[in-house]
Amino acid sequence: MSLRLSTVILPVDRWHAGGRAKWQRAEELGFHAAYTYDHLSWRTFRDGPWFGALPTLTAAATATDRLRLGTLVTSPNFRHPVTLAKELISLDDISDGRITLGIGAGGNGFDATALGQEAWSPKERADRFGEFVPLLDRLLTEGAVSQQGDFYTAEEARNIPGCVQRPRLPFAVAATGPRGLKLAARYGQAWVTTGDPKLYEEGTPEQSVAALRGQVEKLGKACAETGRDVAELGKILLTGFTPDRSRPLESVDAFVDFAGRHRELGFTEIVIHWPIPDSDFAADQAVFERIATEAVGQLG
């Protein structure tokens, strides 16, 4: 599988004041996909503009023609499988089958308590995720679903006519632990990682590559246990969270070096953040666009 280059556009711009133009430019630049985060608010952007992921993707679907679109990532923090499924089949229809659902277990950010609940423990997040993904899979592939779970219930939930993509839109499952990797192996069409968060502050790029190699190996074992060929899964690296940080976006050569090292690990798609001035994702827009148009061709 050849390496694909995608971008993630954070939902921080009003649609008619720069938002739409970014998604259209992503298509013009030839990115494979453009994703957005699915949060209610996020980190240093909490006190500034931040729009909803699914309405943003719906608008992007009507403003583009070829670009794949998706979330990196949706989580159970404030989503329920029944309502999410209805929105996803609608979005898949509007986009004419261009949606990928990035999905993860969630974390301890602002989303974790915005609905008034206590933040879930890592075990409860894993338990919920283990119930959320299979139920969502059923809701997107079956016309009517009833299921009584420990956390999520569906009662005669109808999702007719289903997704444009068959049997459903693809899942890109974000996971590094054993339970999440098994879900990726069982339900994913792709797997997503940001690397090892423990290395972000003081680790080295070499340590990060070794950690990612270990994650890929664990994914392979999870697939083997599930009876699935790991080669069937796309392997997506969301950049910006490894010790390299923004250095791969400093030049085309720097990115080609970074991408080449990670392609050797088996990654099939690399996602870079659309530049946002005065943020952790600040980068030179001209260099970013050169990477988009030149880098993949240099990888051979």
Strand order of the largest sheet: 1-2-3-4-7-8-9-10
Describe the global form: globular
**Stretches with pLDDT under 50, minimum 5 residues:** none
How many H/I helical runs? 8
Main sheet makeup: 8 strands, parallel, barrel
The topology string of helices and strands comes to: EHEHEHEHEEEHEHEHEH
How much of the polypeptide forms β-strand, as a percent range?
Answer: 15-25%
Radius of gyration: 18 Å
How far is the N terminus from the C terminus?
Answer: 12 Å
By helix and strand content, what is the structural category? alpha/beta
Query: How much helical structure, as a percent, in the residues?
Result: 25-40%
Mean pLDDT across residues: 96
Number of strands: 10
Write up this protein:
It contains eight helices and ten strands. The mean pLDDT is 96. The two termini are 12 Å apart. It is 38% helix and 17% strand. The strands form two sheets. The chain has an eight-stranded parallel beta barrel, surrounded by six helices. Strands 5-6 form a two-stranded antiparallel sheet. The protein is globular, with a radius of gyration of 18 Å. The chain has 300 residues and is α/β, with parallel strands linked by helices. Helix 3 crosses helix 4 (122-141), helix 5 packs across helix 6 and helix 7 crosses helix 8 (285-298). It has helices spanning 19-28, 53-63, 81-94, 122-141, 178-187, 205-226, 252-263, 285-298; strands spanning 4-8, 33-36, 68-74, 99-103, 144-148, 153-158, 171-174, 190-193, 234-238, 269-273.
